[in-house]
Amino acid sequence: MPGSGAAGGEGGAGRRNMGGIKGMADPRGYGIERVAYWLMRLSGLGLLAYFVAHIYETSNILRGRAGWDEMLATTQTTEGHVLLAVVIGMCVFHTANGVRLMLGHGGLGVGRPARPDYPYAPLSQGARHKIGIYSSIVLAAAASMYGLAVMFGEVH
Amino acid sequence: MARRGLAAEAAGTAVSPSRTVTLRISRENPADARGGERGFSVHKVPVEKWTTVLDAILDVKKHIDHSVAVRYSCRQATCGSCGMLINGRPRLACFTKIDELGADTVTVEPMKNFPVVRDLVVGFERLFEAHRGVKPYVVGAGGSGGPPGAAEAAPQTPEELERFVQFSACIKCGLCNSACPTMATDSSFVGPQALAQAYRYVADSRDKGREERLKIIDESHGIWRCHFAGSCSQVCPKGVDPAMGIQLLRGYLLGFRK
Question: Relative to the CA of A112, which of A35, A118, B54, B66 has its CA 20 to 30 Å away?
């Protein structure tokens, strides 16, 4: 049932004027919910990239003990640790925000329809969801910092 | 384009502008034989506390450049004609006071995700097609043959009315579709406007077309493409909250709602 998507329109409309990747990826101007949408996509892509890299990394075991140790040594660097901390953050944010989204997608916690009153603050973007988003960000930051502390030997 | 001030005839009008702002109007004409080159015309316009963006555009159109293309009608956020990007955000020009923008420069552009007809005017063909596609009417007991006749009219309790009345306030201005990040990249996505209207009828206790309507939106470019960014609800000038409607609708498909 989708729309035509064609450029045609009233009176011979021309340029499609689609927002494109820039319109989709720009998190500005629509509040924390749009930032969460952006972070969710970014962390999803990041985790996919990590998954591919992780498969490559672990496949080095086929090169024997020496090959495996050599690969592990490249990850035991400052850059490697920072990268892993970012991965931990992405993983935690994607999980926590994903739970919020799954509940929302089922219609849970998005409010109950009611006659809107000016200035029309949308109930679906209410405090419960905002708390969910901010909590996901804080949890991700905390997990990243803990990961950094462990990897750099501050915590055992 | 050149910076121009108010024409001489404006001097006769009794205005006492409290300040002046710079109004940048996006100009393009795709039907132009020269290829519809895009640009901005820049104007200094006097504004009062109550001046809306539409007032300012019409001021320019009346006194400076008659060729500015803008669609409008009611001037009271009822007809949904004057949707446009105002300083980068989709808004109704008649419902947006320049004073509340808090900026000395106001940039108006055609809404994103709609084909441009000319200047600030966009084509609504796709929005109306998607809207019609979700059967935006109460389906009678006879099936999908159309709205019920008088004989089929069914009483409704206030509680039943509350379940959908919020969504019947939609004026089809298209701001939600313009703000939606999915619409920015997926030209086949049904869009928040049509999906919210699907919920409006699915939630109506008189409607007998729920299964049919859910089947229509249950496809890859349908409801599953919404990722709950919520931007549609933030720009809605009537408080419809399409994001809520879409998630509640998805609850029906997932079996969380009956």
Answer: A35
